[in-house]
């Protein structure tokens, strides 16, 4: 389930942040900054005054000029857009309704089983296999990470078996 953060006020627009934290302290005019970005002064003014949104291309241009990331500017714009969308939904005549929880779709692809599950099944099916035989049957011979995973799983399994045995002795 996705958690939704409800803000009590509209987030600061990326244009305000651009103006107050970057342009004003450096004494850079809108026209000069727009030229550096390769945009018109009119468009940059609209962004700064909250009349235009920042697109991915605009974010990339601003980030290049300022040495920030495009993702930073897109995240700022996205926060404002989400807030505005929620505000519009509150006043909408046709509001969305949540589906029954049993109808939620899991968008993950079905898993084949983790390496640990494969290892545990292999050990359960045939007792007494050596580490090398286990690695071969799982197709992990020569795979350093796979070998470490199998070794770690076998060590954990051995410790768990010892604890179970000791626990049953103490109860008797």
Q: Can you give a write-up of this model?
A:
63% of the residues lie in helices and 0% in strands. By secondary structure, the chain is mainly alpha-helical. It folds into 2 domains: 14-90, lambda repressor-like DNA-binding domains (434 Repressor (Amino-terminal Domain)); 115-171, no CATH class. Helix 2 crosses helix 3 (41-48), helix 4 packs across helix 5 and helix 6 crosses helix 8. It is elongated and about 80 Å long.
Number of beta-strand segments: 0
The coarse overall form would be elongated
- Summarize the main sheet: none
Relative strand content: under 5%
Instruction: Report the CATH topology name of the largest domain.
Output: 434 Repressor (Amino-terminal Domain)
Q: Give the class-level CATH name of the largest domain.
A: Mainly Alpha
Helix share, percent: 55-70%
Helix tally equals: 8
Q: Low-confidence parts lasting 5 or more residues at pLDDT below 50?
A: none
Class inferred from helices and paired strands: mainly alpha
Number of domains: 2
If classified by CATH, what would the architecture of the largest domain be? Orthogonal Bundle
How far apart are the termini? 46 Å
Average pLDDT reading: 82
Give me the Rg, rounded: 29 Å
Q: How would you name the CATH homologous superfamily of the largest domain? A: lambda repressor-like DNA-binding domains
This entry's quaternary arrangement is single chain
Order of helices and strands: HHHHHHHH
């Amino acid at each position: 389930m996705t958690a939704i953060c409800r803000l009590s006020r509209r987030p600061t627009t990326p244009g305000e942040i651009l103006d107050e934290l970057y342009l004003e302290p450096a004494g850079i005019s809108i026209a000069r900054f727009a030229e550096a970005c390769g945009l018109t002064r009119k468009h940059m003014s609209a962004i700064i005054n909250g009349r235009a949104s920042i697109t991915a291309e605009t974010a990339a241009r601003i980030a290049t000029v300022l040495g920030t990331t495009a993702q930073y500017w897109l995240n700022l714009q996205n926060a404002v857009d989400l807030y505005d969308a929620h505000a519009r939904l509150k006043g909408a005549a046709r509001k969305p309704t949540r589906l029954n929880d049993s109808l939620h779709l899991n968008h993950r692809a079905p898993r084949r089983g983790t390496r640990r599950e494969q290892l545990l099944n292999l050990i359960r099916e045939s007792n007494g296999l050596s580490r090398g035989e286990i690695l071969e049957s799982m197709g992990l011979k020569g795979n350093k990470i796979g070998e470490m995973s199998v070794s770690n799983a076998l060590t954990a399994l051995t410790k768990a078996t010892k604890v179970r045995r000791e626990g049953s002795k103490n109860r008797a």
